[in-house]
């Protein structure tokens, strides 16, 4: 099955303490008219959640309340510190709300079992277009063990590794293909570095773009579903032909798994764990959920306002 696509990149983000709130804006240089036009700049959403334990691939995503012109000034005000030094960099894009979205990603991954703190020193920052910083804020989260799952479309097998050691292996069935939209076979599972985005004990999955009675239509409740892309790819319990598992690809794009393995993976994994899928003819787009590791490191660094990596 394939789940309903996310409404936008930030739809999973939750509001935390790292927001501007309703405090008064900092003073702005210029005429009274310019000061009157000044808008408040704050962080509307941040992922991960405060205090959350995440995987070693977890990005830090800051969605702002405004579209920022002077991204350099804002990026200079953002500080990431970790108890184990890691090389990372910021990348700027636009959120589904049309505001600026800053994403911090480690070059390869966070070192496991450590604390990461994000600080936004936004007070007094002039971000352009009359947008000024509102207040400072900070939050912390922890990185757990290294969890990496490798899934081969050709071998029809998933292997889970904890801190580099194989801890579980199970048969799977990936997307069979057969339905093209805009030149893309949307029923083929995407290959690339996915990140775990969300967990659901019971997920409603509806065939996208179809109505009841159409060929291929489905509307089902699927157990033990772990989302790995924005377009609706999950690792979930197999609900159809069990003979497919470990033998051939017959899903609508998701990674079908035996019920016990799907449940184990959902309970074992953190948001931000890497799920590396190989062997399919469809590539994961960088902006399909959290596919940020699909962007080569040099290009990622170039996407930052300061265009340089930092040590945390």
UniProtKB/TrEMBL annotation:
CDD domains: YkuD_like (cd16913)
UniProt keyword tRNA-binding present: no
Pathway(s) served: Cell wall biogenesis; peptidoglycan biosynthesis
Active site: residue positions: 236 (proton donor/acceptor), 254 (nucleophile)
Keywords from the named record: Acyltransferase, Cell shape, Cell wall biogenesis/degradation, Peptidoglycan synthesis, Signal, Transferase
Signal sequence residues: 1-24
Protein name: L,D-TPase catalytic domain-containing protein
Organism per entry: Actinocorallia aurantiaca
Lineage, opening ranks: Bacteria, Bacillati, Actinomycetota, Actinomycetes, Streptosporangiales
